Structure formats: structure tokens, C-alpha cells
Amino acid sequence: MALEIAVLAAGAAYAGGVFVYEEPEGLGGYLRPGHLVLVPFGRSGRPEPGVVLRRIAGKGLPRPRKGEQMEEGRARKAVLRCLEADPVLDPPRLEWAAWLSRTYLAPISECLRLMIPSGLIPRREPVYEKGHVATCPHERSDHGLEQAVAVSFAEQVLLAALAEGPLTHSEVQTILRDFPLVERRRAIQRLLQRGWIRRSWRVSERRLPMLRWVRLKALPDPAFRLGRSRVVIERRRRLLERLEAATRPLPADWLQAETGCSAHDLRQLARWGFLELFEQPAWETVDPYPVPEEPPSLTPDQAIAWQSIARAIEAGRFHAFLLHGITGSGKTELYLRAVAEILRRGKGVIVLVPELALTPQTARRFQARFPGQVAVWTGGMPPTQERALWERVRRRQARVIVGTRSALFVPMPDLGLIVIDEAHDASYKQDLQPQIPYLLPAYHAVDAALALARRLEAVVILGTATPGVELRDRVERGMLEELSLPRRLRGYRQRLMEQARQFGASLDRFVEVESEALESGLPSIEVVDMRQELKAGNTGIFSRALEKALAQVLRRGQQAILFLNRRGAAPFVFCRDCGHLIRCARCDLPLAEHHQPTRWVCHHCGAVEEPAARCPRCGSRRLKGMGIGTQAVEEAVRQRWPEARVLRWDLDTAPTRAAHALIWQRFASGEADVLIGTQVLTKGLDLPLVTLVGVILADVGLGLPDFRAAERTFQLLVQVAGRAGRGLFGGRVILQTYRPDHPAIAAAAQYDWDGFYRKERAFRKAHGYPPFNRLVRLLHWHADPDRAREAAERLGEILRDHLERKGAPPTALIGPAPCYFSRLRGLYRWHILLRGPDPVAWLQDFPLPPGWRVDVDPLDVL
């Protein structure tokens, strides 16, 4: 029986990704659609993972790869082995993968790749040994005469080593470590081509992730000495006391983190017979500290919205909601209620957040409400960690997944609910990166979630305080049901009374809406025209209003957030004599100036340069940073208020997830008075002592030549304004701008969602932008600017003829043209835009040349 299999190898996608294999006799009739298998791929026959798509009756030859002729009489290759006893993907998800492939014009193998955790794939390593051909440096010429063959020194070293026996790829690399990498590869390739060495493949299972646990066996006699030093004795005593109080086994890593003990302490206590150390599969563990959080009562607005959600869950059919709630209105509580109801019905839940490191409260609240049932999933996890979480989900031990965009592809059994928080956020769109060797689909998690939910008859909740034009348009077309939370939930009486006692505040100005909940309005927004500040002689970073407000906050012992969506000390460096702008050599974009130490940094590729003493164009020494970034704001605050405790939160101070969490924790616990940062501050932060938000420059991003620039600015300003006034003391927001009359800034100052939506919708309609037309962007990168331009112009001509045959209007094709950011990371970028009701249909039968990538429904055209 033949099997159609989507091969998940990086190079398979370029040949379509789907191949036909023979089912081996040992698995006759066993393999079904969705099974994960290992198959030989390519001329070398290296083992690669694949997913069975369907069974095919009859015999035939495998499909030839592009540029490869099928040899006459060549036999079809057979599946090597089945990697999992049960199918890893069910039929609805296989259908979903086909939908992703059609919608985003990506090979189905690449869509399936998103759904297979790397921890399920065994390790594969080449093994080299002596070949059948005699390994002597001679070969016969066309005339039958023997002639000498040039053999490099690297080849001689490798042949001599292989004479002692087979070597793995890593061992070969060690032997040839003194040779350049290019020469190593050339030596291996030449020896393989001559038949002097052979290559086979060794497949080894990945070690299943295990977690070490500690069980208390007996307490030592009080006279027993637990160590030589007082410090060691004290920490070992704390460890034993913690185990005694728990009355059950605890994970070793938890114990070590809590008590400060070491792995040596655990081993020593086990040798003495006081402890027992044992391992369990990581997916069989549970939350060691289950402390369920009691749900509060709902406000009237929440209760109305909940009735609609509960009815949809009760119906058990696909339904999608847009939960439009202002910042602090209680959207998360509705998520939690919906999750609880789904779990009561024995189904699973996926909760997506834009960036887990920036929304620690969301994950904490789900883990507190549903202890032992939550798995946190983020991209870039180690394979063993992915495998452990996947096993917990598959075994129905974790019924709630909280994670970033990629968590949508975890195959949760009986999925009944998908929640997408901050559904407007751009991080839900998969980027196209030239350095990634895969043809991954540029999917949008919102659209993909809706398509998956339809196939599984699940409920979808899209929560946001600032829905975009496309989401609102779907509401008007009846594709989403809108639920509204128009009032801000300040908090619950018990919590606020505790804060009032702590800070000496009053609850008199709050509106009681229920026996527990208190509400209040959004913070007022003041717009400051920085042009008038300049006329008044104020050339500093802070307007007079912001400086006065910040001084009041510091005097009262409260907290403030200063937002600027530019990091560094100055976004540009230029020559004051000739005007030359210092640019990145790889990206052709301005370098930003950073201090402590002073350096020039490219914010696109990360390149760092030492500051030059002279202008490269005119030789002048008058090089100066222009504009302001978060580092300059931090320096200005420290200089103006030296007593203030200041934290800065951007990619420079928080390059890792752990650093993000640490900065948030320090500010939330009151260790700082002022938090300065970029757009990381806009995502899901609930900080009750923040009474002031100052936007240093609200104009950033408005000048970009992109049709979504105004929408992004409006959303960003409203989101960051929502960080103020979430606690006892109310709050205010000050927007500094040089364009106070811009529609996005004027609407944000009034929280005018409807007014901004009407104006933006009219603009989009007049220019034929989404949602009135769809866009498809074709992108090409190349290190040579001429070859990049030639490839774009050549494809443009072919595509124009293709669209004419399809009956598309002349305005359907825009370009080819260089991108706005024309050079990034040393590669020149060109793009072509297709615009129309369904431009994807025009490309379904159009073979794109190698080197081109497709972005369907792009979020920007920069």
C-alpha cells in the first residue's frame, strides 16, 4: 500500500513537500492519516520526519524533485519506522493544515511543521566509513590509463582516520578541527563523490524528560550533626522542615530554589537515609502548591457579556466573540469563567497572549484559578521541554494552555475554547525572515484560530481594548458578535480597603456597582503641543505640565510611567557641518547612539560600532546624536530628580524573558518610582500605584509610509494610557506631541474608538485598502542590489502577464519597488503588492521562483 506523506525536512518544501512512500510489511495496514513517521529523503537517504496524509491504492513511482529526472526502474522508497503509536494529528487538524496551505500559499509540509514539537523527532547523525572503491589516490582516464588524483591534506587526514573504523559526523569534525569549515565540507563531499567513503545515518531516541522528586523518609535525631558548618546545617534543616510541612514529595528544583540547598545536600541526606530521591516523567507531575483562587462576583456589564458566552458554550457549536473592553474593565475574569465552564464539560482550552514575558499576570491568574491544569507554552523552548508539555496535553493532564502565538498549534484533545487576549496586537502575525530556511506560512493567529474553531465546533473569544478596523468590520458583517465592557473595574472592595489602610486613602469617590466591585472612569488625557513649548523657551525633554505632574507623583510617593517608542540615547547621528547621516553598513539605516559606554547601534540587525571621531564624508569632528530615546529620558530624569528611583524597560535592559519578568516584579513591588520604556509597557500591566503616564513623543510612527500607521499609533496611545489610574489614587495621562491635530492623536486623547474607526474606515475605502480589498506581498532578498532589482523586475513582468490572463484589473499589481527599509542585515529587499478582492486565487497556480516569499494579508508594507 502506498502512502502520501508530507516530509518535514527543510529542503522538501521546495519540491512541494508531499511524496509517495511504500508502507513496509511490518506496518502493513497500521499507518493512518496523522501518524508521525521517519522516511528516507533525498539522494543520501537521510532519515527525516513526515506526517501521513492519506493512503493510496495502487503502485506508482515517487514524485521526482524539481530539476531531477526519475531513473527508469527506480523503486519507491519505504517508510523506515513509525515514531508514535497513535496519530499525532487528528482529521480536523489535517484539514486545518490544508486550509493554512491554501490560504497562505505555503507547502502543506511547512504548515504541519508548526504542529509537531521538535521533542518528538529523534536525533539523526551521519556516520562515515570506508567505501567499496579502493581508497588510493589514482583513477582511470578515458583511455583506460591510470592517473594520479589530487588529494588534499584534509582528505588524507580523514581517510587515515577512517581506516581505524567508522566515525560519526561530530567525530569527523573534531578530527578536522584545524581546517576551515569550507575545506572540511569540500573534503567530505569529494570523498563521497569518488566512492572512497560511504555515509549512513544513525538515529537515536531523544531522552524522555524526567523530573527529580524528593520524599521525606525520616527525620534525624536532634543530636545528629547535619554538616560541618553552621550555614550548611541551617539550610539542610530548612529543607527537612519544608518536606515535613508538605507531607508529600516535592520537586527537587522547587526545594533547591526555596531553601537554598544544593544538589550535593540532597544526595548527602539521601545517603544518610533521611530522603529518597526518585524520578518521574515530567508530564506526570502536578503543581506542587495548588491554591485555587475563588472567582469574584461579576459586574452588571460582565454579567450581560457572560450570558452570551455561556449560551454559546452550552450550544456546543462554533461561535466567535469580539470582547471589546476598555483597559481595566475585567476581560480576564470573563476568560476565566469561560475556561471554568469548558473544563467542567471535559474539554480543553488554549489561551493566547501577545508576549508571555510581558504579561506575567495573565499566566499567574490562570495558574492560580486552575492549579495543576495549566501548561505554559512559548516559542523557542528546548525539545525536551516541548515534549514534556506535549505529553501532558496529550494525556489530558494539562487542559489549559497559556502561551504565545505558537501555542495555537499544540494538538489539545477536545478543544472547546480559544481565547486571544489583546487580539489587535501585531505579534500574532508570523514574520517572514530570510535567514529562516523554512517556507513557514505567514499566518495570523486570529484568522488561524477562527478556522480551527470552525472545524472543531469550538468557541473563540477575541479580547481587546482597541479593536482594529478589520475586527470591527467583521462585527458589522456578522462574522463576530461584539460584547462590550464600557466601564473600568477599579477593583474589589476587600483589596481596595487593604490598599486604603496601607496608603491612608479613601474609597469615597468610587462607584459601588455590586457588593464587591468598585468602578471609576478612565484617566483624563492632556495633550501638550510641544511647538508651543518651544515658543515659550522650553527646549527640554519634558513639557512644563509633565514636569510638574511628575514632581507631584514623586512627592506623594506614587509611581509614574514614561513612554517613548525609541530606545537608546539618540535615534540618529549626523554631522552638523555637512548633514551626513551615519548609517549601518549592513542595513543602510540610521545608527542610534547609546551611552554607558558610548556606541552606535543598529536597531534592526544589532550591529555595534565604535563612535567615529570624524565625519566620513567631510572629516568634521562635529558629529552629534539627534532626537531622543529611552536612555536619554532616563538620564534626564536622574539629572532633574536625583532622588527618584528609576528603572528602564526596553530591549537593551531586558534582552531575555527572565529580565522582563524581573523588571516588572521590581516595579510592581514598589522598588522604583519611575518606569521608562518602549511599547513593552503597553501589554497587560496592572500596576495600581501608577498615577501618571507621560508619553514623551506621541508622533513616533506617524510618518511611516504605511496605511496602518495611524491605527497603530492610536492603539499604542490608548493602551499605554490604560496603565494609569488602575488603583486607589486615580490617574492622569499627558501626551506630548508636535502634531496635536492628527486624527489618531486627537481620537486617542478622547478615547474615541468609534470616531477614529469611522474616519479610518473611510480612508481605507477611498484607497482600496483592507478590509475593502485584500493584499498579498511578495518579498525578495539578495546580497547583490543589481540581482535583487533584476529578479523583481523579471517577476513583475511575468506576473503582469499572468494577471492579465486571469482577468485582473491593471491596478491589481503595485510595483516592483524597493521596500521602505531597502536594506536589512546586508540584504537588499524588493517587493511586489497584489491588491484585490481575492489576490490569493490569482496565485494558486502561479509557481513562484526560488528566493521569493509570500506574505498574505501583511500587517505592514515597509
Give structural notes:
The longest helix has 22 residues, at 785-806. The chain has 24 helices and 38 strands. The strands form ten sheets. It has a seven-stranded parallel sheet with strand order 16-17-15-18-19-14-20, sandwiched between helices. The chain has a six-stranded parallel sheet with strand order 24-34-33-25-32-31, with helices on both faces. The chain has a five-stranded antiparallel sheet with strand order 2-1-4-3-5. The chain is of the alpha/beta class. The radius of gyration is 31 Å and the shape is globular. It has seven domains: 2-122, 3-Layer(aba) Sandwich (GIY-YIG endonuclease); 125-138 and 149-204, Arc Repressor Mutant, subunit A (Orthogonal Bundle), CATH 1.10.10; 210-284; 300-486, Rossmann fold (3-Layer(aba) Sandwich); 490-520, no CATH class; 524-569 and 628-764, Rossmann fold, CATH 3.40.50; 774-856, Alpha-Beta Plaits (2-Layer Sandwich). Strand 22 and strand 23 form a beta hairpin.
Furnish the topology, listing elements before pairings.
Layout: E1 2-7, E2 18-22, E3 36-41, E4 46-56, E5 81-82, H1 91-104, H2 108-113, E6 123-130, E7 138-140, E8 146-148, H3 153-162, E9 167-168, H4 169-175, H5 181-194, E10 197-204, E11 210-216, H6 230-246, E12 250-251, H7 252-259, H8 263-271, E13 275-281, H9 300-315, E14 319-325, H10 331-344, E15 348-352, H11 360-369, E16 374-377, H12 383-394, E17 400-403, E18 415-421, H13 445-456, E19 459-464, H14 469-476, E20 481-485, E21 488-492, H15 493-503, E22 511-512, E23 517-520, E24 524-529, H16 530-535, H17 544-556, E25 559-563, E26 572-575, E27 592-594, E28 599-601, E29 608-609, E30 623-626, H18 630-640, E31 646-649, H19 657-668, E32 674-677, E33 690-695, H20 709-721, E34 732-737, H21 743-749, H22 753-767, E35 774-782, H23 785-806, E36 813-824, E37 827-836, H24 839-843, E38 852-856
Parallel strand pairs: 14-19, 14-20, 15-17, 15-18, 16-17, 18-19, 24-34, 25-32, 25-33, 31-32, 33-34
Antiparallel strand pairs: 1-2, 1-4, 3-4, 3-5, 6-9, 6-10, 7-8, 11-12, 11-13, 21-23, 22-23, 26-30, 27-28, 28-29, 35-37, 35-38, 36-37
Helix pairs in contact: 1-13, 6-7, 9-10, 20-21, 21-22
